[in-house]
Amino acid sequence: MVQTTVRGAVAEALEDLSKIDFDKFSHRLLDYPEIRRRAVEGKSFLQITELLVSTFPGARALKVTLEILRLINCNEVAEKLDSKTEAFQDNGDPTFRKNSDGDLDLDPSQEAPNYAPDNRSLTAALSLGNVNLSMCTIQFGKYKGQTFKWLLENDVNYTAYLVANHQVERQHSTCQSQLMANKDSLTQYAMAYPEVLKVVRFQLSYLEAKERSCQSGKEGMALVGFGRHRSLTLQDLYNSKNTDIISYVNYLWGMKSTCEPGSRMEDAIRYIFQRDQEEAVRNTQTERETGPQHWTPVHQQIKVGFENAKKK
């Protein structure tokens, strides 16, 4: 009954779109890994409706439709659809925040930094099914007391990091404590979404690279892990000749006094400063032997500080 109602409401919304907006809607559908291009191209609004309700069961088809409508700025159509269907039961799916490119927004929401962890005793969540899991509360970490659904809606990157760490933890432990059961439930809920699965895989790569970087002389093998160059190793970031990346390194250089202690940014800055100091010593020695050498912008900054420090 719910699915039929969703089908009718979605069909009416798509019918209200202009041809240009319908084409935009169909194109944005391709951002979802479950959707194939051949299933979208050349299809009518009724065929796209059937695709939505068959690919995204129940109320999730509605959420995907609303998400895309707002992304392409068809807000009036979205609000009309939303008002018609507001009584639908929540099926436990989070509403993911996305950036202008249609990718997951990995930064915490505006609400997230203001949350104060609930340190009261929490009971373990042992129910199965997506709806029940969505309402389970996390029992650890900086968002302790919030629901799993809230976590994915407000800080998907942090949630993926927790899940990745738990997967590594489970490789070495069969513990069945209340805390481990809570982590198991969070992993089950989060991994049900392909968008989150992709972020979890990156976090696993980050953890593997971090482990390799603990070896002496391998510090540069760690991944940056944040920002637009998150997939680069620290070594590749520092050694790059790309002007955009050089500019980003300079930006990080200037963030030393304001970055969050213990953050990935602090790790990257520490590596950059270490490399700069090594290069400063090396280039100073070379200048003594062969004359002035070329310095990159970052090295010019560190050279001044290095020389001033020697004079004190």
TrEMBL record:
Residues 1-87 form the Pyrin domain. It comes from the Eukaryota. Pfam families: PYRIN (PF02758). PROSITE patterns: DAPIN. Residues 88-117 are annotated as: Disordered. This is Pyrin domain-containing protein. It comes from Anabas testudineus (Climbing perch).
